[in-house]
Amino acid sequence: MKLSNTSTRIALFSKVAPLGKALSPVTKPLLGATLIELLSAVFAVLPYVLIVQVGNELLSPAPNAGLVWTLVLSAVACLVLHAALSMVALTVTHLTDGTHQWRLRRELVAKLGRLPLGWFSVNNAGQVKKMLQDDTHAIHYVIAHSVLDLVSGLAVPLLSFIYLFTVDWRLAIIALAPPLTYFIIFGVVTSRSSGVTRGIGEISGRLSGRVIEVLEGIQVIRAFGQTGKAHRRYSNTVDEYISRTVDWLLPLSKLQAAISVLLQPITFLLLILMVGTGFIATGRMEPLTILPFLLLALTMGNPVLRLGNGMSSLMEAMEAAQRLENTRGLSEIEEPMNPQTPDAGQLDVECKNVVFSYKEGHRAVDHVSFVMLPGTITALVGPSGSGKSTIAKLLPRFYDPQSGSIAIGGVPIREMDTSELYRKVGFVFQDVRLLQETIRDNIRLGNPDASEEDVVRVARAARIHDRIKRLPRGYDSIVGVDARLSGGEAQRISIARALLADAPIIVMDEATSMIDPESEAEIQHALISLIKGRTVLVIAHRLHTIVGADQILVVDDGNIVQRGTHEELVPSDGLYSRLWKAYERTKEGRGKQ
Ligand SMILES: Nc1ncnc2c1ncn2[C@@H]1O[C@H](COP(=O)(O)OP(=O)(O)OP(=O)(O)O)[C@@H](O)[C@H]1O
User: Which atom of ligand 1 is closest in space to residue 380's alpha carbon?
Assistant: First the structure.
């Protein structure tokens, strides 16, 4: 029992702590707003107390009209003060929130900028959007609204209760029964559904991802006949989202039904009338004593509802703060203290004993060593899942290896400034991301200062110039708006971009066999322009394209099991010759069809 209490406390702390941390920069202004809201709560309750005095005065044997007017005007003044203070508190929280949101978003964007590029291969745009928009919005809601909701939701009924307690403690305790029952039900239901809320948050992130996946990749999905699959993935996520939401909403709607009865003013009035009449009838209470209870009962319901709203957004914010905290804790790509630059003339690439694991216990790259001499082509060949992409992605620091080193011109890439690294290493992978900008700006990402002639030159070399010219506004067409590009065309734009960047080392993924032959031929021509005179590391899927490579590294289960040229490897009895024979057979098969 003790153990479970301790673990519950630890679980609660671990939920509250990230939110506390997220709110720590705004503690002072929030405290100020809380005090103002507390004062406003006092002025919300005072008019009722004054009206009770008015009632008492009017029912007295000789009412004093002057005093009654003073009391009524004071009540009006209190109401005005209550409204004014609430407005000031709300302004303070909104101003605080404005600066905090800006700071938080800037911090997150800066963090995203320091994350290894590999993180973005696993976390899609939907998840990033959820973090930058939805999670920061959840924090916004707590700062701008929930804190005040909670303060007034607690303070107004509490002040009313204290006053009523001084009038008649027995009836005061009876008046406490409905909100107390509400808290118990609310507490039980929300603690039961907190796991589900977290689950819904995760699925909602995935759902945004699926929508973006379908929308962004619609051409590619269609071109590859994957519409059914993408749609199935999307509808499975929607089904999961609906089922989890129903799981979550069902107990909450039961609670809602309970709230509507428990917190109705009529519930308080009936309860007080029933018990109060009993007290009066049995001589335990003066008849006039019931008046403050009948009036203040009206103040109990609404603030408690505000408390309910405040609590549920607080729960959401706790989950959001946890996700933001997880993002803050992600390891960043380390920038060197004293960056070094390799000599432009000696850009050989050396991988020495490189080990990399995505997860503990499985090495995706296991003690890999190789050298790429300047101006040569190195091809990575191997079965699916053998580790080719991972090896290739280590060179532009999509991930950092756990051990071993990668150096360019003798300088470890970790010792190079990342901007310098990207000047040296360009990459063209299959999952091309184009920005919703003009085609020209998409190409110019490779070199923002490039002239119009240079943009056209690289577009021609990448075999995409004619297609761009056919677009409604040529190079000014905006991707996704008036330029709907196929997967192959997008890849050629990214090749043009890499050509413009003019990095001496290129890491690239060859076109897959899924693309249509015409597109593939165009991409191959574009790639030939790209690799001319550069040091190239290519992930090969179609073996005939790398027959002329200077060296072929045959990868199996994270290891390089063979290396050499095509002529050297074909005769030797190894994985390469088996892959080659299998490739020849499929080519023949396709030829016969
Ligand atoms: N982001 C990731 N997170 C976890 N594991 C991963 C990730 N990417 C790849 N892997 C795993 O690492 C291993 C190597 O994968 P990798 O993609 O490098 O192989 P590959 O040879 O390029 O395959 P393919 O030819 O199918 O693209 C596989 O076991 C794969 O499941």
Answer: 21
Which of 124, 388, 510 has the most ligand 1 atoms within 8 A of CB, as the residue to mutate?
A: 388
- Choosing among 3.40.630.30, 1.10.3720.10, 1.20.1560.10, 1.10.1740.10, the CATH entry for 97-328 is 1.20.1560.10
Q: What residue ranges do the domains of the chain occupy?
A: 97-328, 349-592
Site to substitute for ligand 1 among 124, 362, 381, 386, most atoms within 8 A of C-beta: 386
pLDDT per position as a tens digit, 526-567: 777 777 788 999 998 878 878 888 999 999 999 999 999 999
258-263's contacts with Cβ under 8 Å and 24+ in sequence apart are 258/181, 258/182, 258/185, 259/182, 259/186, 259/305, 259/308, 262/178, 262/179, 262/181, 262/182, 263/178, 263/179, 263/182, 263/300, 263/301, 263/302, 263/304, 263/305
Residue whose CA is closest, atom 12 of ligand 1? 364
Q: How far is the CA of 382 from the centre of ligand 1 (A)?
A: 12
pLDDT at res. 286: 85
CA distance 149 to 153: 6
For residues 16 and 503, give the distance between their C-alpha atoms in angstroms, rounded to a whole number: 48
Identify which of 362, 366, 390 to mutate to test ligand 1's pocket (most ligand atoms within 8 A of the CB): 390
Q: Which residues line ligand 1 (CB under 6 A)?
A: 121-122, 358, 364, 382, 384-390
Distance CA 498, CA 259 (A): 62
Q: What's 349-592's CATH class?
A: alpha beta
Q: Indicate the average pLDDT of the chain.
A: 82
pLDDT, tens digit, for every residue of 285-321?
Answer: 888 888 888 888 777 766 766 776 777 788 888 888 8
Q: Whose CA is nearest to atom 24 of ligand 1?
A: 384
User: How many A from CA of 209 to the centre of ligand 1?
Assistant: 21
